[in-house]
Specification:
By secondary structure, the chain is α/β, with parallel strands linked by helices. It contains 16 helices and ten strands. The protein folds into two domains: about 130 residues, no CATH class; about 260 residues, no CATH class. The protein is globular and about 70 Å long.
Length: about 400
Amino acid sequence: MIASSASLQSSDFAQYPPQARDLARRYLPTLTSLPVAFLAVFLRELMGYDWQFPVERAETEAQLHTFRNRGDLPNLQQTLARFDSLPLAPCFQRAGWAAQPSRAVEEMTAFLWSAGAMDAFHAAGSAYGDQLAQIRAQQEKVRDRLCIVIVGRDAPGEGDLFRHLRPHGTCFENVRAAGGLKAVMSLLEKRAQADPVPYAHWYVDGGETHDSGARAGVSSISYGGLALTRRNLLQYMVTARSLGSVGPEELRSKMMQMGPAQLGNLQGGSDEVLRRFELSVLTEGAGTQIFSTTFVQWTARELLRRARPDTLVLRYAPRQADRPMNELISVEDGEQELDPRGSLVDAEMGAYYTWINLNRLHGEENCRFIAWHESGTTAIAVSPALAKGTVSTQTCDVEQLLRWSLG
């Protein structure tokens, strides 16, 4: 059976947030022309339009414009036709399914697995991903991005630190730590003041937010600042687990549908976009509620995927030591044992993953990336201004390293 979106009605969007509702109704004829399997996924994203970052909103609108004029784009027509060839999930025969697109996507996913059509769905999604990359390239300007990752707090001893990154940049092995954090924060502030675009400059801390992270123009998020929110979320998880009322998949689904008011104490305050982002980090990321290193790594991944900032500073902090899962998710008060050395291992790999994600952005050839061990003497800088696969033993400080990297 061929799926159709023709039954979509304006009333289906009544419970969407205001801006998403208005956008969906304005483009209703376009939406009704899309394959239903594709439409369900798109509406799930569109429903969060009010809380998207500016670049996401622009991309959403660019996609809608492209859909409306897709008759001139044969490649897009062919890609969407692959979604049209998928078997129709029963949920789409239910009137008003578009009012809850997340639920529809979950039911569709289960159906496609059972029908042996998930590979075809993934292939269609990958093909559309290529189309989306073209839309994004046309929409976005090439940015002068800078990402700085600070690792190793309270963890001396390095060995071959940043081994995965060394082939791609210059490794500095005699970096003076004194004044390093101040130099990084000063540069972050200067970039935010020079280009005061909302959500373009970020500071992420695995402990408490550094004072400089609260400066004008800098968006900040920290593991320590979300302590009460994390505690409330863990309490919800423990309760659901002890009652045995929901399975892992249903628990994940329920968490992803939570709103800020259900957990409280988010750092974003009156900034609803930031509050929703903080909530998504804690409810969609595995382990972000428990390990500060996972929190920083996942936050960086999501910021690069969604906000695509011009400046991103990450500072890892020691995470709690590994313990049995029952203890890790416990909400009982007590002093945690920290593992600085294990956290350095996590942060080193997190820095590498962040560099990979940075290079997935449009204009990656202009990106600058620095990872610095704040309790040691080693740093790695990947920049068009510096040689690849080389080692420098010249004594320098972080301020000099930043200046050389920026060229």
